[in-house]
Amino acid sequence: MTTSNSAPRRALRAIDIFFLVVAAAAPLAAIAGNGALGVLLGNGVGMPASYLISGVVLILFAVGFVRMSPHVTHSGAFYAYVRHGLGARAGGAAAFVAIVVYLMMVVGSTAGFGFFANVFFAENLGFDLSWKVWAALSLLVVGLVGYREITLGARLLSVLLTLEILILVALVVSVFWPSSPAVVTFGSFKLSGVFSGSFGLGLMFAFCSFLGFESAAIYTDEAQEGHRTVSRALIAAVLFIAVFYAIAMWAVIIGFGEDKVVAAAGENPGTLIFRAFGLYLHPAFIVAVEFLMMTSALAATIALHNAASRYLFALGREAMLPQALGRLHARLQSPHIASLVVSAITSVLVAAFAFGDADPLMTVLSSTFGLAALGIILLQAATSLSVVVFTLSSRREAGFLFDLTIGLLATAGLAIVAVLVVMNYATLTGNLGLLDYAPWLIPLSAAIGIGVASISGPQSGVAGKRAA
Question: Going by C-beta distance under 8 Å and a sequence separation of 6 or more, which residues neighbour residue 58?
Answer without folding.
Answer: 210, 213, 238, 242, 380, 410
